């Protein structure tokens, strides 16, 4: 069994974590005390859960935050291991190097203990926002530490991008994007603005809160990790997932889509064929970032079907999509689609915004469209830097020269991705 340790960093990481573990526990029939209701026929759930001597199943999860109120965010009757909660002594929105160093040292110790408790560690999944103090300091140091000490293991970052960042948020986002290129095996990007559109337009949430957005992220992560957590014809490790999607170490920014989204009060009277869900999943509005997916090329794409799926039709549909050029792959990276099929759709979680159709699709892709994301947030940085917005705060954490080197790293990625697209267009 290949185990995966989840690291939830800062307020965003903690909040996302509670939504993810709510869904994971529901999928694996584990109650809030860690008691499994129906004994599974396999042990794939142990990739994300550890079994105690008293036969309780606890998340392989570590929570880190500089905010002293971290523990207040977790339900007291939950199944988390409280020894895996590390918090500082600061109030929110403060930056302090001593607190960051304490969290890093303590976090490194807990991570090492968690790794020792694994039979065969596959890697780490980190969850955090690129904005704010934890993004600017703790997360970058943690992922760098993992790259130094566990370089053979996958470091998968699930990252949330702020909406129109200014000042400190713009600097933080730039720094984190650069560190992800160098230190992460891959990162899965979510833009708050795009999540809000999905929540409003397809889940009928009038004023989406972070709670609503975190539910959507949890749904995507559930789908992404399905071939790791469940028995199927496509059982893969985090290492294999990374290898199938990343053509080159620095081209490692992924985004995904899911279709269909249905609000909890949906009548289910509309029918979606296999063709409908495949074509719908490539619509721009269902992707987790705001990018021009139509005029870019794909390096790779993994496609997971859930529910009532007839496999025999899928190959011809995907061939048609390629022929119509709805999706085009980079010529020198002709990996095509990697498909997985899972019989069970996600369970309904109480008080969540969504229900589920009898068949669904999740796609995770690596495309040149990620250049749009790099450019947009680099421009936010340029604006903040030109006006020296909150510059005295950011220089408490990082030197100006290093900040500009990180910007250069992003512009290099923009050029590389644009060149990949240009080479393919020129060959045509």
UniProtKB/TrEMBL annotation:
SMART domains: Tubulin
Pfam families from the UniProt entry: Tubulin, Tubulin_C
Gene Ontology CC terms, in alphabetical order: microtubule
Coiled-coil annotated spans: none
One BP term from GO: microtubule-based process
InterPro entries: Alpha_tubulin, Tub_FtsZ_C, Tubulin, Tubulin/FtsZ-like_C, Tubulin/FtsZ_2-layer-sand-dom, Tubulin/FtsZ_GTPase_sf, Tubulin_FtsZ_GTPase
Alphabetized UniProt keyword annotations: Acetylation, Cytoplasm, GTP-binding, Hydrolase, Microtubule, Nucleotide-binding
PANTHER family listed in its UniProt record: TUBULIN
UniProt family annotation: Belongs to the tubulin family.
Protein name as catalogued: Tubulin/FtsZ GTPase domain-containing protein
Organism lineage: Eukaryota, Sar, Alveolata, Ciliophora, Postciliodesmatophora
């Amino acid at each position: 069994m290949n185990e995966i340790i989840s690291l939830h960093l800062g307020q965003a990481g903690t909040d996302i974590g509670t939504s993810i573990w709510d869904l994971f526990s529901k999928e694996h029939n584990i109650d809030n005390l860690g008691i499994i209701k129906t004994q599974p026929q396999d042990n794939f759930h142990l990739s994300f859960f550890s079994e105690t001597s008293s036969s309780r199943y606890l998340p392989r999860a570590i929570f880190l935050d500089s905010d002293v109120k971290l523990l207040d965010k977790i339900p007291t009757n939950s199944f988390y291991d409280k020894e895996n909660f590390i918090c500082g002594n600061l109030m929110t929105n403060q930056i302090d190097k001593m607190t960051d160093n304490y969290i890093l040292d303590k976090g490194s110790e807990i991570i090492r203990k968690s790794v020792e408790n694994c039979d065969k560690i596959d890697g780490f999944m980190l969850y955090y926002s690129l904005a704010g103090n934890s993004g600017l300091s703790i997360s970058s140091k943690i992922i760098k530490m993992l790259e130094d000490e566990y370089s053979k293991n996958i470091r998968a970052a699930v990252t949330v991008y702020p909406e129109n960042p200014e000042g400190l948020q713009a600097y933080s986002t730039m720094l984190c994007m650069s560190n992800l290129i160098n230190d992460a095996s891959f990162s899965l990007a979510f833009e708050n603005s795009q999540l809000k559109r999905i929540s409003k337009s397809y889940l009928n949430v009038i004023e989406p809160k972070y709670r609503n957005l975190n539910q959507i992220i949890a749904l995507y992560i559930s789908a992404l990790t399905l071939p790791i957590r469940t028995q199927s014809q496509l059982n893969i490790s985090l290492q294999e997932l990374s290898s199938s999607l990343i053509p080159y170490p620095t081209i490692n920014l992924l985004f995904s889509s899911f279709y269909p989204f249905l609000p909890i009060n949906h009548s289910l009277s509309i029918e979606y064929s296999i063709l409908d869900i495949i074509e719908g999943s490539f619509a721009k509005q269902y992707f987790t970032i705001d990018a021009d997916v139509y005029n870019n090329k794909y390096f790779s794409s993994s496609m997971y079907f859930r529910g009532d799926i007839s496999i025999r039709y899928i190959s011809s549909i995907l061939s048609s999509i390629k022929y119509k050029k709805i999706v085009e792959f980079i010529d020198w990276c002709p990996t095509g689609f990697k498909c997985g099929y899972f019989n069970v759709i996600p369970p309904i979680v109480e008080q969540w915004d969504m229900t589920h159709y009898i068949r669904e699709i999740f796609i995770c892709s690596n495309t040149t469209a990620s250049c749009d994301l790099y450019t947009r947030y680099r421009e936010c940085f340029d604006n903040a830097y030109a006006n020296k917005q909150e510059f005295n705060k950011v220089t408490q954490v990082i030197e100006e020269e290093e900040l500009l080197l990180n910007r250069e790293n992003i512009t290099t990625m923009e050029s590389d991705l644009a060149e990949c697209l240009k080479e393919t267009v020129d060959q045509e």
